[in-house]
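Kindly go through the entry underneath: sequence plus fold tokens. Please state briefly how this chain folds according to its tokens.
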Amino acid sequence: GPIRFTPTIKLTNLGMDSNVFNESEDPKSDNTAAIGPEVMLFMRPGGTRLTGKVGVQYLYFQEYDNQRSWNTANEARWEFPLSRLTPFVAGTYVNSSDRQGYEIDSRARRHDDSFTAGSSLRFTGKTSMLASFTRANAEYQDDESLGDVQLARSLNRREDITKVQLRYALTPLTTFVVDTDFGRDRFTNSNLRDADSLRVMPGFELKPAALISGRVFVGYRHFAPLTQELPEYNGVAAAVDAAYIRDSTRFQARFERDIEYSFQPLRPYYALTDVALTVTQRMLTAWEIVGRGV
């Protein structure tokens, strides 16, 4: 029909949380689960391409019901294919109380939204360019805090990203990419963390049929705070997420290094290095054993 859709029910977490409130003394444990529906949509109105994803998740705790919550993540993209030019618009909206990362490990309610407009241009059968502009907003609820710090006051911000990407298909399975981002971060309640940045990331995109699949990007990041009291950062940035399959075993490695903002006033930003390895062993047609280390 005119609308194609793929509905799913995702059970993404089932087990026991051994430290629900991240307490150093007398940690509390509880049985927990995360489950919810998700649907992917695809349409071709008037020869264009419209894709989207709508997902809802319920985070359940058996004993500590004040930790229960509903989360939603939605995205859409509309492309207008022409002969060599493909303009597009895209948007995302996330309303979540999941733990945000290694530093903010509380379940703080946060609203993220973004809007992107851009276009890809195909020069030849192997060479193309993509240019886009993204405006993204990140907002914590006013009553969310970590220790004595109000997260909304420290981290609510608007981010503008101008992206230029050059692509060259080396083989049918491997594409060489030079990804360049110009960033501009402006914070709502304090200008301490306002900054401009440049990131140049050459690398490779590898299709699933390749011996090694995924993406491997390593480059340079220049991060310049507007406050003179804060030092600049000039160094390596990386985004690697690659997989290798040998017989019935799949190895997946992830390595990321980039700048992250901190809620702490004495350390407004830091360089985060994130490493993970996942090994998946297929046992039967529908069963796998997964081991993961971070």
Helices lie at 151-155. Residues 42 and 51 are 5 Å apart (CA to CA). The chain has a mean pLDDT of 92. The two ends are 44 Å apart (CA to CA).
